[in-house]
């Protein structure tokens, strides 16, 4: 820690500057991070949707939504709300035993720069164009990501950015219905958070029809020794009466 003290004779004020250097911390590899649960985040206009994903790609607990309303607020208030959301995410990660937080590698800088120019099927003018530009402007992807990287590093967590391609489409096709079967209030954004988390853990976005693979620590164990396995009843020995037979009607 170094302190620099200086005085400005013009206004008679003293200034104290502090500087320090953080120790070099080796970054964990993706394989190391994927051995633990992760917290996946889907950033949207006015809210952030969160899911906790286990190493085998399944959802842990119930997906949740964190409000993040920034429209019309001053910069200092927006910064405070973003930091509050990031603190919430870090707390959830710590509680779940996660070593990482997964987000989409989104960047709307080009969309903001294009303004009213037409780009593919993107609405450009009129009511739909204004609504689209307002929606893009209201998603704090850049600031949230920067704040998340800084605060997560200080908390000993890693941030993993994944490809956002087809996240919503795969979420609606493969994950929305199964999630709603257990949690009826689940939205498409919650399902998107699941897809984001699975990508961060190296799994495919689509859901296996026959179920997901077992966790890495369980993959090497036989089915009979895995937790939750219900053994089949033993086969009756020859000459042993079945439960339906009694001493009175047993056949000779």
Q: Report the total helices.
A: 8
List the quaternary state of the chains.
single chain
CATH architecture identity:
2-Layer Sandwich
Radius of gyration, in angstroms, nearest whole number: 27 Å
Number of strands: 7
The stretches of 5 or more residues where confidence is low (pLDDT under 50) are 110-119, 226-230, 243-252
Distance N to C terminus = 94 Å
Indicate the CATH topology: Nucleotidyltransferase, domain 5
Count of spatially separate domains: 1
Strand content: 15-25%
Tell me, what's the shape?
elongated
Order the strands across the largest sheet as they lie in space.
5-4-3-6-7
Mean pLDDT: 79
CATH level-four homologous superfamily name:
YqgF/RNase H-like domain
Q: Please provide the ordered H/E string of secondary-structure elements.
A: EEHEEEHEHHHEHHH
> Which range best describes the helical content: under 10%, 10-25%, 25-40%, 40-55%, 55-70% or over 70%?
25-40%
Using the coordinates above, name the CATH class.
Alpha Beta
Structural class: alpha/beta
The profile of the biggest β sheet is: 5 strands, mixed
Biased composition (Pro residues): 230-241
Protein name: Transposase
Region (Disordered): 203-252
Give the topology, please.
Layout: E1 2-8, E2 13-19, H1 30-33, E3 38-44, E4 46-53, E5 59-68, H2 75-96, E6 100-104, H3 109-114, H4 126-137, H5 141-154, E7 158-162, H6 167-182, H7 188-200, H8 216-219
Parallel strand pairs: 3-6, 6-7
Antiparallel strand pairs: 1-2, 3-4, 4-5
Helix pairs in contact: 2-5, 6-7
């Amino acid at each position: 820690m170094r302190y620099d003290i200086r005085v400005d004779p013009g206004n008679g004020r003293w200034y104290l500057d502090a500087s320090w250097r953080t120790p070099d911390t080796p970054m964990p590899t993706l394989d190391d991070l994927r051995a633990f649960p992760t917290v996946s985040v889907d950033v949207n206009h006015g809210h952030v949707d969160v899911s906790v994903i286990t190493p085998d790609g399944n959802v842990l607990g119930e997906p949740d939504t964190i409000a993040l309303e920034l429209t019309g607020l001053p910069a200092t208030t927006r910064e405070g709300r973003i930091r509050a959301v990031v603190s919430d995410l870090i707390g959830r990660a710590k509680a779940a035993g996660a070593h990482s937080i997964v987000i989409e590698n989104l960047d709307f800088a080009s969309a903001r720069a294009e303004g009213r120019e037409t780009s593919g099927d993107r609405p450009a003018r009129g009511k739909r164009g204004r609504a689209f530009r307002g929606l893009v402007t209201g998603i704090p992807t850049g600031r949230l990501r920067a704040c998340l990287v800084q605060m997560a590093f200080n908390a000993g967590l890693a941030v993993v950015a994944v490809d956002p391609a087809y996240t919503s489409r795969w979420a609606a096709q493969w994950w929305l219905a199964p999630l709603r079967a257990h949690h009826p209030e689940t939205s498409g954004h919650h399902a998107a958070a699941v897809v984001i988390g699975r990508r961060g853990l190296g799994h495919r976005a689509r859901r296996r029809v026959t179920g997901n693979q077992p966790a890495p620590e369980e993959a090497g164990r036989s089915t009979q020794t895995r937790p939750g396995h219900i053994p089949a009843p033993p086969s009756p020995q020859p000459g042993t009466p079945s439960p339906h037979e009694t001493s009175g009607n047993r056949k000779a």
